[in-house]
Design a protein that fits this description.
heterodimer; A: alpha+beta; three-stranded antiparallel beta sheet; 5 helices; 17% strand; B: alpha/beta; seven-stranded mixed beta sheet; four-stranded antiparallel beta sheet; 17 strands; globular
Chain lengths: 155, 420
């Protein structure tokens, strides 16, 4: 278990320069993610065109893992069909939480950089927060999302 | 003698602690974490235990265990003697007048909840006021908020300064004939501030205000004397003072405890039960329903023995040197800001580092074998006051070394390099 597995260059880069880091006043959907124990907090915005995610952005503050994960999320779901994004959410959830490497990170591209998080159980909830928030936004869920109360994300 | 002997004061006469020898008493300090010798700097969350405490608990289970206050058989008597002996040990440790003033509870949190529900709920009315301070742990906020909801009383907050000290003049302005309770931390868990509680208590007394002190962060680090403090209730936890988890102490003035109704009902807290009527036991047993944490109490007494053998004044002096060293060393790191800079502090150093979130810092330090706490430290109003989502907190104990301060600083510098 190497620290470099967690803080890969892609993660450090996306933390330092988060992509699509902005409010979206004309968003069709948005949702809040908040982990009170960590203090990680984000708002995720989605603009839809039919069944396609035309634009996605986020704002907030948090640790490098949570910020980089959200930044990578925005890059990877932009232009995808909603159902496709939901499938990616399920894949990412498994990548982050399944004890054995059932998921091959290679086809995930840059998102595969998050596969190291699994080795750091206390940090899984940081990486998964934005994905649950995306899911909530796509389902127009009004309640803020947290991954601290979810046994699947518990260390 | 002052109840709170500050380490900068009259402590130089005692020979300093032999830390290298003291460390041998703590088996866990010999282990490695992530390939590095453990540097345990999360003592404000929970301390470690010396072998004597571990052995005492083991010996109790191996040799003396039975239920207390019940049987006439030898083991029950032995367990009862150990349990009640522990109560007297704690009584003398904090200089309570009687063992009847020592109630064993699960910890500080339960002690405060007990006072809120048993003393506060019958006593408080609509319009009454409870004073807490801005630097409280959630355990000294939420039970009072619950009590306010139940009684219509109002929670008021003594403000603090940017240094993390309480504003005494603002406190005086808040005191009124509506004030019924002052509930105050003796030492802040998130900032390390030693609150000058005697000044606050003296004013509360003049106004006839009942006083509860949250002593969870004070008892392990300084000599506490409840008679000199002149408080009504004092609460602390065993696990922060080298004792077992799951046990703590509520000190209460006997007259107050006698007047309070029981909190929980069950065995041990009664003298006689029929379906028509129950006669409650005397204090403190009135507040100890069910089989208590006997091994915990016995272990706590062993922890008290251990701390007193080392000497609370020598402990305070050693920890103060660690605080000075850590504060000076960390201040040298560019981009590092200390949070909590009160003139009088226990050895708690909260800080932030530009460009590195506290949680990343916590993970990187852990990889260097350095255990610190990151987050809001169960003091979200403190974080809000400083406009921070979280801080990193290194909290020291007498068994920490100056070499470990350097290991901490080196690990922080490593983290800074990774994110620079």
């Amino acid at each position: 278990m190497d620290l470099k597995d967690l803080y890969r260059d892609v993660i450090v880069d996306h933390n330092r320069n988060p992509r699509n880091f902005r409010a979206m006043p004309d968003a069709d959907r948005h949702a809040e993610g908040f982990n009170p124990l960590c203090g990680d907090q984000l708002t995720l915005y989605v603009k839809l065109e039919g069944d396609t995610i035309r634009d996605v952005s986020f704002e907030g503050s948090g640790c490098a893992i949570s910020v980089a994960s959200a930044s990578l999320l925005t890059e990877s779901v932009k232009g995808r069909a909603v159902a496709d994004a939901e499938r990616l959410f399920a894949t990412m959830h498994e990548l982050l939480t399944s004890p054995e490497a059932a998921i091959d990170p290679a086809p995930l591209g840059k998102l595969g950089a998050l596969s190291g998080v699994r080795e750091f159980p206390a940090r899984v909830k940081c990486a998964s927060l934005c994905w649950h928030t995306l899911d909530a936004a796509l389902h127009s869920q009004a309640e803020p999302v947290s991954t601290e109360g979810n046994p699947a994300e518990w260390p | 003698m002052n109840a709170v002997t500050h380490p900068t004061g009259r402590v130089r006469s005692a020979a300093p602690l032999d830390v290298a020898r003291v460390r041998l008493d703590f088996p866990i300090l010999a282990r490695s974490v992530n390939g590095h010798p453990l540097v345990y700097l999360d003592n404000a969350a929970s301390s470690q235990r010396p072998q004597s405490v571990i052995d005492t608990v083991s010996r109790y289970y191996e040799h003396s265990h039975a239920n207390v206050h019940r049987g006439v058989h030898a083991l029950s008597q032995e367990a009862t003697d150990l349990f009640e002996g522990a109560r007297r040990r704690v009584q003398h440790f904090i200089n309570a007048r009687s063992p009847r003033e020592i109630v064993f509870v699960r910890g500080t949190t339960e002690a405060i909840n007990l006072v809120a529900q048993s003393w506060g709920r019958p006593a408080l009315r609509q319009g009454d006021e409870i004073l807490v301070s801005h630097l409280e742990h959630h355990a000294n906020i939420v039970p009072w908020q619950m009590l306010c909801e139940q009684t219509g009383a109002r929670l008021r907050v003594i403000p603090m300064t940017r240094a993390g000290e309480l504003d005494f003049d603002a406190y005086l302005a808040l005191l009124s004939d509506r004030t019924r309770l002052l509930a105050l931390a003796h030492v802040s868990n998130s900032l390390g501030t030693i609150v000058p509680v005697r000044r606050f208590i003296a004013e509360a007394r003049r106004h006839g205000v009942t006083v509860l002190l949250d002593g969870a962060q004070a008892v392990p680090h300084m000599k506490v004397d409840v008679q000199t403090l002149d408080c009504d209730f004092y609460c602390f936890s065993s696990h922060k003072m080298c004792g077992p988890t799951g046990i703590g102490v509520l000190y209460g003035r006997e007259a107050l405890l006698n007047a309070m109704p029981p909190w929980q009902g069950g065995g041990d807290m009664i003298l006689a039960v029929s379906f028509e009527r129950t006669i409650y036991n005397e204090v403190p047993h009135k507040f100890e329903a069910g089989t208590p944490h006997i091994a915990g109490a016995v272990g706590l007494a062993a922890a008290v023995d251990y701390l007193e053998e080392l000497g609370l004044e020598r402990i305070a002096a050693a920890e103060h040197e660690l605080l000075t060293h850590a504060s000076e060393r960390l201040r040298e790191i560019p981009g590092l800001t200390l949070v909590g800079t009160a003139a009088e502090k226990c050895a708690v150093v909260s800080f932030t580092l530009d460009g590195v979130h506290p949680h990343d810092l916590g993970t990187i330090l852990d990889h260097q074998g350095v255990a610190i706490r990151t987050g809001h430290h169960c003091a979200m109003p403190v974080m809000e006051f400083f406009g921070l989502p979280a801080t990193a907190r290194a909290s020291f104990s007498f068994y920490n070394t100056h070499d470990e301060v350097e290991r901490l600083a080196a690990a922080v510098e490593l983290a800074r390099g990774m994110f620079a």
